[in-house]
Every structure is written in structure tokens, then in C-alpha cells.
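Retro notes
What went well: the complex prediction finally ran end to end.
Inputs used:
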Amino acid sequence: MEIFLDTADISLIEKYKDFVDGVTTNPSILSKQGSVDVKDVVLKISKLVDGPISVEVISSDFDGMVTEGENLAKIHSNVCVKLPCTFDGLKACKALSNKGIATNLTLCFSVPQAMMAAKCGATYVSPFIGRIDDIGQDGINLIADIVEVYDVYGFETKVLSASVRNINHFIQAAMAGSDAITLPEKVLEQVFVHPLTDIGLKKFMSDWSKLKGK
Ligand code: G3P
């Protein structure tokens, strides 16, 4: 399973660079960094993590998406152009994929969207678990359904679980067979902090120090 960090915060990427396979961003994430030079951010990330860097287009029309996607791809070979699962986004996916440009079809909320993304040659598709949960449905079910359909038809597009809100989403997405996942810091940090690990380590050290004291 590829694990991506869902941030544009360079200091955060520096902290976790040994544990992630790439980085995903979107306009909201980039906006949190204030006035950003996308090219500058991408080049800084590329120096820390040698893996896919997802950057989303701002255009909503086919021509604009293709032009933006081509320009983003020129920044660095690790750039993966993020496109929404709209008519124009899927059409742009096909055009950019045919040019050999990596794509990540984002804001995916249904199996048909994911199927069309695969047929358009998407490198990744990003179903949003948390936002499906937000409307009272089960986001993990969508991951499992897409994984199953992709397996039935032999689609090569990789399922990239997104909008991950807690460690259970991580566990359940992995159990559902998601090829990749993108984690916000609040979830990734939970991988490295478990109360029982801390309690156990404290006990080990305490017992050891008693032995040394004898
Ligand atoms: O990768 C998509 C992610 O950034 C969206 O997360 O919590 O805003 O639904 P969220």
C-alpha cells in the first residue's frame, strides 16, 4: 500500500519523509500555506520525497485543464495532475494520460465515476471516504466496491483512499484492498503513538533499571 501525506506543509513533509511514498495536495491544502508558488512548493517537496506529488488544476473546462496539466507536469517528473471526476475532468484525464502524464482523479464519490476514471487512463482515483460518511453513508463501502469492480475488469488505475478522518478509516481502507491512501497529519501521527506501546516501554525500562540497581 502506498502511503501519501495530505499536506503542502514543507516542515511536516520533512518530519515524515522517511515514512511516506508521496504527497497529495489540493487547492484548499495549498491555500493553507498562504500565498504559494505552486512550482516552488512542488520542487521543495520533490527534494524531500521521491514519489508522486498530486497537484490539482484550478480550471474547470477541458482546454484549461489540459493546458494546466501539461504545465504542472513540466515542473517535475513526479507531478501527478489532479483532476475532478467531472465530464471535463475525465475528458482531460484521457487527453493527459494519452500524453503520458500521470493523473489522479479526485472528488470521486461513486463506482461509475471510478470506472470512467479507469477507462480514461487515470493513474489514481481518489474516493473521498470522510465526505461520504459526512452525509450518513459508508465511505469504506465505496472503496471496497471500487476495488472489487477494478479487480473484475482488470483495471490498472490505483485506488487512492482520501478524505481519511481517523485511524479506523486507515485500517478499513487497507482491509478493503485500497492500493494507496493519503493521510492528514492527525491520522499519520497516530501510527507512531499507541498508549499500550508507551506503557509497555515504560515498564521495560523500569524493570531494567531495577535489575541494574541490584
Ligand atoms: O485528499 C482529500 C482530502 O484533503 C479531503 O479531506 O477531510 O477535507 O474531506 P477532507
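What we learned: The mean pLDDT is 97.
What to try next: split runs per interface for comparison.
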